[in-house]
């Protein structure tokens, strides 16, 4: 059912009074009379005069402590945010494949939280499932072995009904896995490898982060007017006339970015969620949904010395409430001439395709808006979720899909009747995208490798194929965090 049709059937026009737990409480702080049909707020660009910064790099054993702290990195004002160590983002872990990781975690918040290791194949007991909460003042040691390809992953909280708030307030960080196989390709490294976490924030008049979604903003996802990169609003970074590796995470709650260069030059996509693609692909723009990562090569030798090139978000279609505005994200100043010996490889490490002939089951999931009446979080039988999967909202006590260990399945996410985009994320596994019908009717460059999150736009059906080799209870959900908190999440168990 489409969003507008659903709301009108409830008699609220464009405003609904149904939302899950913490979101409902937040929404009720607003004057209902002031609510208007929601669209993403226009982005307010800054002066691009603040240097881009990078979170500290950490190795295994670094302790994380979720808590409130003073920051000055967003608008230059001293304000409060949440973080794991120093600043709005946690440290970037850089770990070799094959290593065993041990990360002590303390919950310094006044509410429950945990850490989900997004894109890392950890045992179910370490996944950061919504069942696995760390209470205020308590500690937990995350310990697991890294046994997967090199790639860019990340970590963030995953408490049901509070994920959107906790991530928006600043709890997130990068996790980079390295391998000898990837290093042998000699991709740009060191100062020429730039990890970029792109997020949008809504700020109050004192410059503090403001998380108070209205009912309509629960429907579309909470978005802000201030774009930050690695915690800095409108930053700049000096570059030389050579090729750089940009490793980009969309860490926003609900905003989609259509990445492009302001000079119109093409760039090369070499990787996505699960590491390097089988072959490089050259594009001039690329959609990146919340939770997705992309690995890009940008050749600044094609730009004049002392010129400025912006990584921007260009306009895109297919969504009613965002994509209508182009805006700049980060400025690159080409201020140094340098000879670059890097040569783009014609191929990258092979990814074995998962054979559809091995498929034992096809599961179809209708995603969108419905009137789910499940057990819900905390066991309430109230009608608490508007965003549903197959008509159901999340219940921690329920296993929605049982999957045999080592089986291969095709899952189809059906958004053909919806009018909101849904980036669908699976815990505990990677998958390959098989097909997209309706809407864009094609795969984009970043979808031709291993994925853990795939964007399903309005009017689309997307099929993915998965081999389930990780036993235990995991979740799958929309990575629009307001949708997830509103109930758009189910459990699957592999055994």
In short:
This protein is mainly beta. It contains six helices and 32 strands.
Textual characterization of the structure:
- This protein has 495 residues and is mainly beta.
- It is built from 6 helices and 32 strands.
- The longest helix has 7 residues, at 3-9.
- It is globular, with a radius of gyration of 21 Å.
**Radius of gyration from CA coordinates:** 21 Å
Q: Got a strand count?
A: 32
Amino-to-carboxy terminus distance: 34 Å
Mean pLDDT: 90
Low-confidence residue ranges: 5-37, 372-385
Shape: globular
Structural class: mainly beta
- Strands in their spatial order, largest beta sheet: 13-12-11-15-20-17-18
Number of helices: 6
Largest sheet: 7 strands, mixed
Q: Approximately what portion of the residues adopt beta-strand conformation?
A: 35-45%
Instruction: State the share of residues found in helices, binned by percent.
Output: under 10%
List keywords for this structure.
32 strands; 7-stranded mixed sheet; single chain; mainly beta; 6 helices
Topology of helices and strands:
Layout: H1 3-9, H2 21-27, E1 50-51, E2 57-58, E3 64-71, E4 79-83, E5 92-96, E6 100-107, E7 116-118, E8 139-145, E9 151-156, H3 163-168, E10 173-178, H4 180-183, E11 193-201, H5 215-220, E12 226-229, E13 232-233, E14 235-240, E15 243-250, E16 257-261, E17 267-272, E18 275-283, E19 286-288, E20 293-299, E21 308-313, E22 327-336, E23 359-372, E24 385-389, E25 401-403, E26 408-414, E27 422-426, E28 432-437, E29 453-456, E30 461-467, E31 472-478, H6 481-485, E32 489-494
Parallel strand pairs: 1-14, 2-5, 3-6, 5-10, 11-15, 14-22, 23-26, 25-32
Antiparallel strand pairs: 3-4, 6-8, 7-9, 9-10, 11-12, 12-13, 15-20, 16-19, 16-21, 17-18, 17-20, 21-22, 23-24, 26-30, 27-29, 27-31, 28-30, 31-32
